[in-house]
Amino acid sequence: MNQTNRLPLVLILVGLLVSGPVLAHSEQHVAQHSAAVIKEQKPWGIAGDLEQVSRTIEIGMSDAMRFSPDQLKIRQGETIRFVHRNQGQLLHEFVLGTKAELDAHAAMMAKFPAMQHDEPYMTHVGPGQSGEIIWTFNRAGDFDFACLIAGHYQAGMVGRIRVLAE
Q: Could you tell me which of 130, 115, 128, 102 has the C-alpha nearest to residue 32?
């Protein structure tokens, strides 16, 4: 293969290598989970199904680094459809977890801001966009949610969920 024939292949490969980190936290990466969600039990619950939704909770995201509401009470066994509306000009995300899990993830995001991740307990929402998560809270306890984009968590973009025992 001569130099002229290799150029398109080289450009495609470079494009693939560069585009992943750029799209990891860009406006184009907005809460598009694949149809086949892997259901893995977490301490804070498990991915839910649309047919099982008990209720919908809307959560606003702002560039003031706040969620609204930022305190929720949910009954154990409820499947919640969270609808996230980004009212700001920056990309935000919503990640469910325990405080320890979120702290660890936030530290990784600070070190590797272009880190790619897409789990059923998180959504990335571009400016003026909306996203959603369907989650079943099958464990009682106090859990957290946060925007783990570097700087957002540290600025206080966090919330709390109390799951009340049946």
A: 130
Distance separating alpha carbons of residues 84 and 31, to the nearest angstrom: 9
pTM over 0.85: no
Give the domain extent around 29: 3-164
CATH code at position 59: 2.60.40.420
- Collect all residues with Cβ–Cβ distance below 8 Å to 125 and sequence separation of at least 6: 30, 31, 61, 84, 85, 86, 91, 92, 93, 94, 131
pLDDT in tens, the chain (166 residues): 555 555 544 444 434 333 343 334 433 333 344 456 678 999 999 999 999 999 999 999 999 999 999 999 999 999 999 999 999 999 999 999 999 999 998 888 888 777 767 789 999 999 999 999 999 999 999 999 999 998 999 999 999 999 999 8
Number of structural domains found in the chain? 1
